Amino acid sequence: MPPPRTRPSSAENNPLPLPVPEREIQIGNAANEAAARHRFNDYRARRADHTLRRQDADLALFASFLSSLGIQVGDLAHEPAAWRGITWGLVEAFVKWQLSLGYAIPSINVRLSTVKTYARLALQSGTLPPEEYALIRSVKGFSHREQQRLDQRRPRQRVGTKKPAPVALTPQQATALKTQPNTPQGRRDALLMCLLLDHGLRVGEVAALRVENLDLDAGILRFFRPKVGKTQTHRLSPDTLEILHRCVALNDLPTNPHAPLLRASLKDGSLGKAGMTTRAITQRVRFLGEQLGITGLSAHDCRHYWATQAARRGVDPFALQQAGGWASLAMPRRYIADNEIANAGLLDEE
């Protein structure tokens, strides 16, 4: 007769975990400490230069606010130790301080996001307690509806020279901007405005264009978008292609294929060396706008116009996102002006 079966004990079913060897614990702790020491540098190494410049400016303003309270901090953008003593109450006060000084609410929201990002890095570096970081995360920015209410109640709604809204262009004005005198400088200006109005390029992208980016036989432009880190190909618009052929025929473009596409202009209206800085392009666009009675025109306004016109022609939002070099669908929506008639294009019209 076989012996009766016995139920295994709970200890046999769930054996106790083996203790972790002391050496492995030490290695793990050392790895954590090494990662913590380099957390700020690792994060910043992954970000684009324009993002870092904006974040540095945001944190510099935060440090200035803290200094006004008698709190001196180190380099908030690079030193984890600079975040010791930062509390959610200080972050909340920073938001209200900006509001009282008249900073634009979208800018306040962006700076709050920057502070939260670096507070997270400070948490991971071990200099900010978890409970304090959780409270900092709870500090809220402002919604679009809240912005409207607040702006109605405060006398000053913006600090600096940045425009509260883009300059809106009509198709007639856009055509006039692309129609320039048939001189070397005029043809250069016409090419500049075609690139901005017909292709929606950012000012930095225009400044970075090289002659070799063009393929006039195929009618395309290949260029790099630093903001999203990708190379794109645009089919040239008829106006852009026409002015480029004129520039080539009249020897307006640099002969070196590696040279910048746009040439600087001299005081007498002739063209000088190859290359226009973003500052020079910005000033030229403003000047060309003023010649037509358009005040404060910028390359950014031209990008708004391009996106708005594309949307009104019924361009697929995903195609617009790709053509504009945006990382998400939320960005082109910010560039598109509202229709005067809200349901324009939605009704069947005979």
From TrEMBL:
One BP term from GO: DNA integration
Keyword DNA-binding: yes
Pfam families reported for this sequence: Phage_integrase
Feature: compositional bias, Basic and acidic residues: 144-154
Residue ranges, compositional bias (Polar residues): 170-184
Gene3D superfamilies attached to this UniProt entry: 1.10.150.130, Intergrase catalytic core
Keywords annotated in UniProt: DNA recombination, DNA-binding
Region (Disordered): 1-20, 144-184
GO molecular-function term, one example from the UniProt record: DNA binding
Every Tyr recombinase domain range: 164-348
Protein name: Tyr recombinase domain-containing protein
UniProt organism field: Thermanaerothrix daxensis
Phylogenetic lineage: Bacteria, Bacillati, Chloroflexota, Anaerolineae, Anaerolineales
